[in-house]
Task: inverse folding
């Protein structure tokens, strides 16, 4: 052994290792570019050789933009990984996301595991089916409506802050204001306790959630290298990598603390965590363990706040930068909903969506042009292969269609796909089946009802009471590692609209 090691480090041994490395590398390049079943599909050369290409653009927070650019250049299907195809056309939606077990989730979702795989991250279809039955009641529209007084408590704090800005004329950051409000709503509704972000004007959880999403998507996009990356990241000499791993630990500890407190001191107060503690499988009567509750609560903390606050930030940006659209929204609120009464904190969510069709069109257009949940939700073609549109995709291939790319396909939305134009939803030309901000199929986001409640209540209430003026004139740009937000700050001024606000 000693002699063999000595020979290995000799000039001849080193030359042999270099030769082997070059041969393997050359063979890998030849196979991936000319012999691989996906070699016929266009895309960046580096992407066909390694997942590092995707991971780099996730790190830069612009993978969604790069995908649109590549589709504009190459057409409806592009190869963005050694074994990965990204689709652009609408016929790919049902073929990929409504195919059930024929399109199982890939290792990408393992990157999100903190406790155990949760409802979003589990690749086990049987477990997903059981877990969704267990928790679905707590996320139903009826349950969310019962929690509306909790949301109104946080809405009161938000309104008082905005009243204060109106009184003093102070310039404030709308994006930060909304982020703190949404986090506190989530804390109250999901965990039975506010994070007091609105009082402090900040919260450590907000940047930590960004970091967790970045970490998850970086690991997830690296495929077979995930276990190695997870093991090495905690020892990285690179400061930002150490930071995002610390952020995940912070969120994990915060979540576990909330769950432990709820289980040790249960109350009758209706919230989502209480629903998880009490929930049962309708078929078997099985309850969730503490580990199960931690697992699902962590998902609520991460996805529930960031996606909603990011969406609201963009919605207000678009409304304040399109005054004719804003005027129509305010007129609709005045006409359809009337003024808030003296004891109303905000408009009731019950039936609200049907009463304000133009405002809903604005929300849909916001989901279309800037869907903040922009990550690639990868599925794997099973052993029989798949037909996706005109393409026959071989088994074992990873496939997806990101909503940002889909929502910017001019063949679907027209040449003005980069223009915020809510009227497209009232002209009968836009198809809601091509709008997938919450995904589709049996894996659709279970938090959709809570998100829409927050979005509609916040928008209608604030615009009914206040007149906002934006001082931010930079173009709206989505920066996203998977769940994103408006780039930069969002500075505004505000004044009262209704005499009620002066009481």
Result:
């Amino acid at each position: 052994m000693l002699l063999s090691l000595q020979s290995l480090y000799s000039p001849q041994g080193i030359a042999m290792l270099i030769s082997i490395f070059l041969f393997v590398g050359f063979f890998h390049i030849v196979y991936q570019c000319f012999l691989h079943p996906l070699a016929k599909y266009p895309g960046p050369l580096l992407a066909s050789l390694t997942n590092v290409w995707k991971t780099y653009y996730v790190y830069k927070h612009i993978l969604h933009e790069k995908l649109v650019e590549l589709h504009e250049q190459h057409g409806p299907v592009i190869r963005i990984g050694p074994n990965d195809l990204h689709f652009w056309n609408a016929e790919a939606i049902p073929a990929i996301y409504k195919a059930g077990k024929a399109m199982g989730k890939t290792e990408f979702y393992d990157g999100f595991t903190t406790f155990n795989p949760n409802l979003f991250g589990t690749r086990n279809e049987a477990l997903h089916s059981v877990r969704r039955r267990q928790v679905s009641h707590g996320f139903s529209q009826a349950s969310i409506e019962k929690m509306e007084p909790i949301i109104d408590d946080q809405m009161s704090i938000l309104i008082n802050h905005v009243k204060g800005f109106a009184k003093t004329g102070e310039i404030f950051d709308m994006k930060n204001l909304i982020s703190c409000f949404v986090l506190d709503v989530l804390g109250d509704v999901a965990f039975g306790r506010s994070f007091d972000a609105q009082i402090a004007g900040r919260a450590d959880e907000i940047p930590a959630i960004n970091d967790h999403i970045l970490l998850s998507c970086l690991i997830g996009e690296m495929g077979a290298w995930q276990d190695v990356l997870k093991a090495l990241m905690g020892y990285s000499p690179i400061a930002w990598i150490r930071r995002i791993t610390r952020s995940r630990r912070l969120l994990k500890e915060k979540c576990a603390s909330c769950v432990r407190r709820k289980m040790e001191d249960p109350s009758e107060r209706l919230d989502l965590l209480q629903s998880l503690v009490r929930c049962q499988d309708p078929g078997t009567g099985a309850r969730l363990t503490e580990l199960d509750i931690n697992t699902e609560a962590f998902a609520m903390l991460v996805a529930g706040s960031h996606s909603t606050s990011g969406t609201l930030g963009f919605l207000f940006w678009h409304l304040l930068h399109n005054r004719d659209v804003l005027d129509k929204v305010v007129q609709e609120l005045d006409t359809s909903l009337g003024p808030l009464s003296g004891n109303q904190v905000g408009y009731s969510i019950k039936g609200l969506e049907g009463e304000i069709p133009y405002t809903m069109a604005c929300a849909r257009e916001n989901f279309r042009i800037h869907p903040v949940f922009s990550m690639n939700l990868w599925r794997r073609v099973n052993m029989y292969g798949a037909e996706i549109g005109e393409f026959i995709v071989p088994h074992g291939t990873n496939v997806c269609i990101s909503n940002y790319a889909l929502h910017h396909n001019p063949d679907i939305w027209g040449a003005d796909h980069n223009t915020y134009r809510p009227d497209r939803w009232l002209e009968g030309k836009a198809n809601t089946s091509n709008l997938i901000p919450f995904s589709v199929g049996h894996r659709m986001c279970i938090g959709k009802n809570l998100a829409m409640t927050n979005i509609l209540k916040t928008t209608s209430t604030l615009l009914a009471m206040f007149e906002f003026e934006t001082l931010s004139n930079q173009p709206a740009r989505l920066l996203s590692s998977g769940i994103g937000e408006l780039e930069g700050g969002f500075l505004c001024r505000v004044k009262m609209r209704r005499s009620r606000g002066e009481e």
